[in-house]
Specification:
Blueprint (H helix, E strand, L loop, with lengths): L4 E6 L5 H11 L2 E5 L3 E6 L1 H10 L5 E10 L3 H10 L11 E9 L6 H20 L4 E2 L6 E8 L2 E7 L21 H10 L7 E4 L6 H10 L21 H12 L9 E5 L2 H13 L6 E5 L13 E5 L11 H15 L3 E7 L2 H4 L8 E7 L2 E10 L11
Parallel strand pairs: 5-6, 5-7, 9-10, 9-12, 10-11, 12-13
Antiparallel strand pairs: 1-3, 1-4, 2-3, 4-8, 7-8, 13-15, 14-15
Helix pairs in contact: 2-7, 3-4, 5-6
Keywords: Methyltransferase, RNA-binding, Transferase
Organism: Flavivirga amylovorans
Protein name: THUMP domain-containing protein
């Protein structure tokens, strides 16, 4: 039996609860929420499973050593004293990144450099050879985290951020991050039991993440590589077994996922990405201006979208947000509409009262995920007063 060890899954602000629930459902033990992270324990197979199966994680770290650090020399000495041979060959390659919340240490690049020096010097002194740095495809990616004086050294099992699912070849000017999209859909409570729509679908991220949630498809099946595949204890048979067990849990989906965009280029990009994700059977994409559309049929509709914030586009934001409100009110009865925006002023012009508001961040922009409930009824719609 593989032994259990502690891991840390990093996430976006506001997604800690979602990630903790995902981990519990996957079978993690000792699940504990932090800020932008959740710690848990599991074995090597579970580390593979977490990387493949978590929708709201951006990294899975495996802490290997923790100590108090009082100076840069102290950091160097303690990292030098560690036994690195179980993790890296003297002829291998490494990369180090650092995150720092400390008055004593203020420069993360310098801390990463100091850590790298200590590891390289240790190998040179004990074996006569030294590993090289490779920032793109290292054999070992090391994370240094300093919180005040507490230093934790972890191995990064993911490599590239887990939002890089592998299905996107085409993006538009402001693509939404895949982890953010999945988290928004999960926060909205969509469970695949109704039709889903993104009326401003951009490059299709929201549609693809919604389809994967509906069918319970592991989000990172299409990734080219995880960092753990270069580790000395990489077990390809175990990985394939885990992959197979996750694929057995996929399920059927009996509703529609619909995407609109008024830019033909966005529609073409979305279709490309949907095809890459092999989800054409579930997703329908149309060249439409949302403001000129109306809901088809009587069925309940679940809508999640990411309208422009005015950061990069030259449009009258007040009018644009008023048009969103008017279109929902007049043309989309029986709809739960959710969208995220960082333009908190423009939000006031929607002209509807949200039934929920959740604080989040889109990259570094403080944002709100808002929900508007459009009731069935007259064409004008009895919406939330």
């Amino acid at each position: 039996m593989e032994e259990n060890f502690t891991m840390v899954a990093k996430t976006l602000f506001g997604f800690e609860e979602l990630l903790a629930n995902e981990l519990t459902k996957l079978g993690a033990q000792d699940v504990k929420k932090g800020v932008r992270n959740v710690s848990f324990s599991g074995d090597k197979g579970f580390m593979y499973k977490a990387n493949l199966g978590l929708r709201t994680a951006v990294k899975i770290l495996k802490p290997i050593h923790s100590f108090i650090v009082n100076s840069e020399k102290d950091l160097y000495d303690k990292i030098y004293a560690m036994d690195w041979e179980p993790y890296l060959k003297s002829t291998g390659t490494l990369a180090v990144d650092a995150t720092i919340h400390s008055d004593l240490f203020t420069h993360s690049l310098y801390i990463a450099q100091k850590t790298k020096d200590a590891i390289v010097d240790k190998f040179r002194d004990t074996t006569g050879q030294r590993p090289n740095v490779d920032l793109k495809f290292p054999d070992l990616k090391i994370n240094v985290h300093i919180d005040r004086r507490q230093c934790t050294i972890s191995l990064d099992s993911s490599g590239d951020s887990l939002h890089k699912r592998g299905y996107k070849t085409a993006t538009n000017i402001a693509p939404i991050n895949e982890v953010l999209a999945a988290g928004l859909i999960m926060l909205s409570g969509w469970d695949g039991q109704t039709d889903f729509m993104d009326p401003m679908c951009g490059s299709g991220t929201m549609l693809i993440e919604a389809a994967m949630i509906a069918c319970n498809i592991p989000p990172n099946l299409m990734r080219k590589e995880f960092a753990f595949e270069r580790w000395q204890d990489w077990d390809v048979d175990l990985f394939e077994k885990i992959e197979e067990s996750l694929l057995k849990k996929t399920r059927d989906f009996h509703h529609k996922i619909i995407g609109y965009d008024k830019a033909p280029s966005a529609v073409a990009k979305t279709k490309d990405n949907v095809k890459n994700a092999q989800l054409e059977d579930f997703i329908e994409v149309k060249h439409e201006d949302f403001f000129k559309t109306q809901k088809g049929g009587e069925e309940k509709l679940h809508m999640v979208f990411n309208p422009p914030y005015g950061e990069r586009l030259n449009i009258d934001m007040e009018q644009f947000y008023k048009d969103i409100g008017d279109t929902l009110k007049q043309n989309y009865p029986g709809t739960d509409a959710w969208f995220i925006t960082s333009n908190l002023d423009a939000l006031k012009h929607v002209g509807l009262r949200p039934s929920r508001k959740i604080q989040l961040f889109n990259a570094k922009l403080e944002s709100r995920l808002v929900k508007y409930v459009m009731y069935e009824g007259s064409k004008k719609g009895k919406y939330m007063k």
